[in-house]
Recover the amino acids of this structure.
């Protein structure tokens, strides 16, 4: 038996300036055929899980197409057209298939398709036999739609945030497809949409209240009749109709049971709604606590969360650290122009820089300062441990590390990079343990890497397009009501 593998993943922040284009996918991953195996077979990504699961079931894997770009603005219409054309060509060239394993993200938005994942899954479905089994994975931040549910026979979402179970979910999907192909089960799925926008600050699956929710999901899955169950917390930064929390239950040939269990679980979540309201800590309080700390404190810059599509050049926390006189601090900012200026000056030299603050103005103005260039790097590093996103190879583009007169260390990168690996610091000769405060532009994703060096992690309510204060976002399209934005 031959099973095709297709992945197209983008988490689109509809509040972010600029579009995500083909260049961004080329910078991320744009692969076909055997190159997918070479890049992903040993990774912690779900495609690594697909390959491992199929090998285990002695089914031939046919890697077809994989595209991924770092979360950012909405995908350009022309880019989606090109990606779909390439996917379609590669699918044709793949020959006869017995099934497909797919990896959408679930929170992709294109200019011409508010439900980008539903759109490509539907297109894929239309190009194969209606009876061809399609099983896949979803990110825990998916804003699930009925189009996605209808296009696939079964979908399985990650159950951890940070996402450390991507490979396991890929294996789960492959085994489910294998059972289906061998006539051992007939998956049927139903979704439910509780009226909840679970605050990003609450979305850590190893702490309350989400820990208990995933334990309850585990109880649900213990039922023999249930093939899989997913709780998607939702991605609040995509202003689309289905934004918010969803539940998906897959049963063995029992649609009524799938429906009843999904509805029950949605009701369970609705009853717990008050626990999902974000607890927001302001900048001054967070920086003061970091200044008092005896060990490195990680300040999580929620408003400029790169993994949530923010620009990664917000200066609010850097300015607060300078103002508070916290000398031993690390901040990474995306700023190609500042890298160039540092390169021109050269290692060991002093240079006047204007850094960061080119994105949305609420995320902080540029900071103009003298700086000493500590080092210049190619920005490439690898990560072998399981980390959020499941990637092994990282590229920050050309990178400069500079020291400000107040003692703060600032890393400047030419590509946007999410803080998912300590390799970001160590590859540039920096010891994470040596800092009193480390700013990580994320919410939960950085925890997997940073918890080993930062006993204290503070989620800071910084302004920006990924603000945790959802009342600051000007939604036009989302469903209503959604607690706590509306009373229910
Ligand atoms: Zn996610």
């Amino acid at each position: 038996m031959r099973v095709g593998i297709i992945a197209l993943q983008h988490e689109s922040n509809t509040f972010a300036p600029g579009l995500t284009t083909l260049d961004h996918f080329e910078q991320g991953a744009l692969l076909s055929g055997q190159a997918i195996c070479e890049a992903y077979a040993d990774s912690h990504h779900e495609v690594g899980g697909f390959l491992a699961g199929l090998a285990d079931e002695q089914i031939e894997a046919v890697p077809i197409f994989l595209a991924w770009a770092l979360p950012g603005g909405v995908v350009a219409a022309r880019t989606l057209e090109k990606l779909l054309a390439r996917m379609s060509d590669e699918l044709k060239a793949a020959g006869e298939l017995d099934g497909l394993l797919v990896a959408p993200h679930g929170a992709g938005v294109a200019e011409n398709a508010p439900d980008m994942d539903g759109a490509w899954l539907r297109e894929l479905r239309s190009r194969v036999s209606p009876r061809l089994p399609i099983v896949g994975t979803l990110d825990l931040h998916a804003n699930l739609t009925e189009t996605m549910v209808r296009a696939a026979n079964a979908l399985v979402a990650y159950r951890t945030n940070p996402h450390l179970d991507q490979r396991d979910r890929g294996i789960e999907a492959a085994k489910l497809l294998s059972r289906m192909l061998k006539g051992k089960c007939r998956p049927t799925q139903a979704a439910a949409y509780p009226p909840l926008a679970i605050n990003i600050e609450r979305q850590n699956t190893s702490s309350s209240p989400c820990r208990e929710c995933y334990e309850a999901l585990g109880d649900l899955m213990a039922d023999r009749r249930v093939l899989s169950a997913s709780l998607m917390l939702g991605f609040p930064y995509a202003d689309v109709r289905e934004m918010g929390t969803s539940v998906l239950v897959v049963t063995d040939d029992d649609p009524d049971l799938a429906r009843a269990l999904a509805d029950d679980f949605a009701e369970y979540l609705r009853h717990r709604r008050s626990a999902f309201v974000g607890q927001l800590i302001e900048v001054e309080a967070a920086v003061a606590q970091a200044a008092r700390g005896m060990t490195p404190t990680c300040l999580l810059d929620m408003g400029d969360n790169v993994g949530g599509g923010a620009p990664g050049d917000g200066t609010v926390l850097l300015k607060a650290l300078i103002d508070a006189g916290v000398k031993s601090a690390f901040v990474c900012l995306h700023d190609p122009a500042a890298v160039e200026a540092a390169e021109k000056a050269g290692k060991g030299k002093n240079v006047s820089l204007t850094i960061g603050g080119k994105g949305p103005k609420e995320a902080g103005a540029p900071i103009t300062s003298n700086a000493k260039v500590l080092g210049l790097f190619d920005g490439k590093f690898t990560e072998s441990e399981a980390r959020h996103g499941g990637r092994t190879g990282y590229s920050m583009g050309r990178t400069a590390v500079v020291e400000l007169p107040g003692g703060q260390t600032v890393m400047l990168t030419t590509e946007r990079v999410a803080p998912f690996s300590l390799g970001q610091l160590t590859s540039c000769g920096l010891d994470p343990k040596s800092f009193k405060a480390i700013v990580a532009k994320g919410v939960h994703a950085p925890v997997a890497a940073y918890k080993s060096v930062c006993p204290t992690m503070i989620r800071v309510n910084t302004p920006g397009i990924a603000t945790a204060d959802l009342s600051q976002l000007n939604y036009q399209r989302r469903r209503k009501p959604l607690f706590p934005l509306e009373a229910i």
Q: What stands out?
A: The longest strand covers residues 367-377. Residues 139-141, 163 surround zinc ion (CB under 6 Å).
